Amino acid sequence: MTTAVADLFTLPVVELARALVGCRLLVDGVGGTIVETEAYHAGDPASHSFAGPRPRTAAMFGAAGHAYVYRSYGLHWCMNVVGGAETAAAVLLRAIEPTDGMERMAARRGLDDPRLLCAGPGRLCQALGITGALDGAPLDAAPFALLPRTAAPAIVTGSRIGITKAMDEPWRFAVPGSRFLSRPMRIGRPAGG
DNA sequence: CCGCTGATAATCT
DNA sequence: GATTATCAGCGGA
Questions:
Q1: CA A11 – CA A31 distance, rounded (Å)
Q2: Which H or E run includes A106?
Q3: What share of chain A is helix, strand, coil (3-state, %, to 5)?
């Protein structure tokens, strides 16, 4: 038995977020390799689950291995992978390197540049066709496919984006130097100033 | 490259 | 009424 993605869901959510970088996500065969994630959990003031269960966040309090999809700023959809050892934990998918169904993604996004297809949580949901209809859907069944890594990628850590609380927690993970990130990763301070 | 700002709706005060 | 796990378009450097 090789390592299945499901085996990762019981890890602490910060480790799950790290482990999902390099995995592949497809929706109806469209998607690519996850290159940027962030971890959230119920003890984290920046998390949607911090205030306790709500109608919108029900999926985050539900079973691991399912999607938590919510609307952001009234306009965009954002997708999380529910899982982690903590209560109501999930990993926000922030960027994907598109590999499968490029034409479908370009059509949905109204763009040509592969760099901009999935570079951001709202963008990747638009490109893969993820909406609130998939909130709570299991990731091991159609239309989803969440596939394990074939090799361990290089990964760097940083602060999460777009939050106003717990801003210093280093719970953002990304492939260093990837051209498909939502925003560049802040590299370590230059040696010698 | 950078910063500013409007769009738009669920949630919270 | 304010805030929010965002994005695109714009203008200036």
A1: 25
A2: helix A102-109
A3: 20, 25, 50
CA angle in degrees (0–180, nearest 5) for A91-A107-A185: 35
Compute the Cα dihedral for A125, A131, A136, A140 and give only its sign.
negative
Per-block mean pLDDT, blocks of 10 residues, chain A (193 long): 84 98 98 98 96 95 98 96 97 98 97 95 98 97 97 95 93 96 71 32
For chain A residues 132-171, those near strand C by a CB cutoff of 7 A are 160-165
- Measure the CA–CA gap between A69 and A137, rounded to whole angstroms: 9
Show which positions of strand C are touched by protein (CB under 7 A).
Answer: 3-8
Task: List A31's β-bridge partners, or say none.
Answer: A26, A100
Is pTM beyond 0.85 here?
yes
A180 and A35 Cβ atoms separated by less than 8 Å: yes
Element (H, E) at A15: helix A13-20
Q: Is the CB of A109 under 7 A from strand C?
A: yes
- Cis before residue A55, ω within 30 degrees of 0? no
